[in-house]
Amino acid sequence: MSILLTGATGYIGSSVLPRLLEEGHTVTALVRDDAKAEAVRAAGATAVVGDATDAALVARLAAESDGVIHLASASDVDPGFVAAILEGLGESGKPFVHTGGIWTYGSNADIAEDSPVAPPALTAWRGASEAVVLRASGARGMVVVPSIVYGRGAGLARLIVDAPRGEGVAPALRLIGDGTQHWATVHVDDLAALYVLALENGEAGAVYIGASGANPTVRELGELAARAADVAGGVQEETVEETSARLGSGLAEALLLDQQARGSKARIDLGWEPNGPALADEIAAGSYAPETARA
């Protein structure tokens, strides 16, 4: 298929783009500037420099495609972008894979696609656009919900491994809150595979949670990071107020959510098989670990 992709040069998109090409699809990526266009072309795709808020352009590109994956999701882009995509796709039945987020479900020890929603303020805007995609009558609209994405040494895991160290004889790595909260996680390459499977085989109106099934606590991850970096004092808890002051209240509220998910629906319905290294292993001796730990 010929796929329209947004966010192609971003963290997730940098894995989705090559995955699409490996599966035999051709890709047209909508990018904001010439530098991103060069990166897209170097990867083997076609680049169109333009703005995701240009409704006429977006509708035309959607009409010319066999399907759309939207990764560059943002509160100031999504409403107009979604409307333009659905206009361009018309009554074609072509797939439109939109991006959600695990934080939408709030704190929950066993998150499934139909779990109640309780989004933090940071991501409360997502619901309206997702609902439009899922209700689409002319296109095969779906939402992929990434958990906390990690891998390749990037993503939110850097907030743990790069956390401030305390001062004194035995400095300690600062946790996000007290560290008892679980994070639902997914490797970026496994998530890319899910996007492609949803595009190819997903059902209209379906939501697919991208979760590996590994749900470590922030304390567990912090202790691994401290050990890998030989931080003498181990880890040190923060109060909610301290974390909010350090990271901002919006992000802190989201990162302090206690979430666990298994991603069972994607496995059962799409045959998804996440097999990337666990975040714990990546921190202990993988892409986030210092050279000495990797060695």
Description:
This protein is α/β, with parallel strands linked by helices and 295 residues long. Helices cover 39% and strands 19% of the residues. The strands form 4 sheets. It has a 7-stranded parallel sheet with strand order 3-2-1-4-5-7-12, sandwiched between helices. It has a 3-stranded mixed sheet with strand order 9-8-11. Strands 6-14 form a two-stranded parallel sheet. Helix 2 links the parallel strand 2 and strand 3. It is globular and about 65 Å long. The N and C termini lie far apart (42 Å). The mean pLDDT is 97.
Keywords:
19% strand; 295 residues; globular; single chain; alpha/beta
Provide the low-confidence segments as ranges. none
Q: Tally of extended strands?
A: 14
| Spatial separation of the terminal alpha carbons | 42 Å
Give the helix level as a range of percent: 25-40%
| Largest β-sheet summary | 7 strands, parallel
Mean of pLDDT? 97
**Beta-strand percentage range:** 15-25%
Radius of gyration: 20 Å
Number of helices: 13
Topology as H/E string? EHEHEHEHEEHEEEHEEHEHEHHEHHH
Structure classification: alpha/beta
Dominant shape: globular
Which sequence of strands runs across the widest sheet? 3-2-1-4-5-7-12
